[in-house]
Write a structure and sequence with these properties.
about 190 residues, mainly alpha, two-stranded parallel ribbon, 7 helices, disordered N terminus
């Protein structure tokens, strides 16, 4: 009879795909992200591109120890969001701005993790990539991923003459040695 395999309760890197913020926490997190990156000039607000859903993927659920980046435990982020709630959900945006500034000053490491996740989620969203393409002259050729357009648009075509000059080499695995043991140019008689 086979030995039963124990199932690890550790979440995969970055939390779990099934974690969801409560509706209240999602609103607070969206307000936090909107304070960091205001909408305008053709760019959507982070709350419009489901930033709280993106960040939720990186949260370790309650009762599990966060062992991988960004080490966001549901209880910890929930407590931080609760502490920012009154100011971020206030109709006066200045209160939210001041609360975010105070959070940055008092808990720099926690603030940095949330800021990085907001930036990562926002600037990787397809709607924001489209805005970069349309609104920024330097961003017209920016692609979210190399596919399906690929990098071919930015590469020069190889002609047959250039390809004929390419000479490949092959080194057998047993011939590979660490760089520290490679002979120097002087030892090979190649010194300048």
């Amino acid at each position: 009879m086979p030995t039963p395999v124990s199932i690890s309760l550790k979440p995969p890197m970055g939390g779990t795909p099934d974690y969801r913020f409560s509706e209240r926490h999602a609103r607070i997190l969206d307000a936090f992200a909107d304070t960091l990156i205001p909408a305008g000039e053709g760019f959507p607000a982070p709350s419009e591109v489901e930033i709280s859903g993106f960040i939720a993927r990186y949260v370790t659920p309650a009762g599990m120890e966060p062992k991988w980046y960004p080490r966001l435990a549901a209880e910890q982020i929930g407590a931080r969001l609760d502490s920012l709630a009154d100011a971020l959900l206030d109709p006066d945006p200045r209160r939210g701005y001041e609360a975010v500034r105070a959070f940055e000053s008092s808990e720099a490491d926690a603030f940095a993790v949330l800021r990085e996740l907001v930036y990562f989620g926002y600037y990787s969203h397809a709607a924001v990539v489209r805005a970069i393409n349309l609104q920024l002259a330097a961003g017209q050729d920016y692609r979210q991923t190399p596919q399906p357009a690929g990098y071919l648009e930015g590469l020069e075509a190889w002609d047959q003459e250039s390809l004929a000059k390419v000479r490949g080499t092959y080194l057998r695995t047993e011939e590979v040695v660490p760089l520290a043991f490679q002979p120097t140019f002087a030892q090979k008689g190649l010194s300048a």
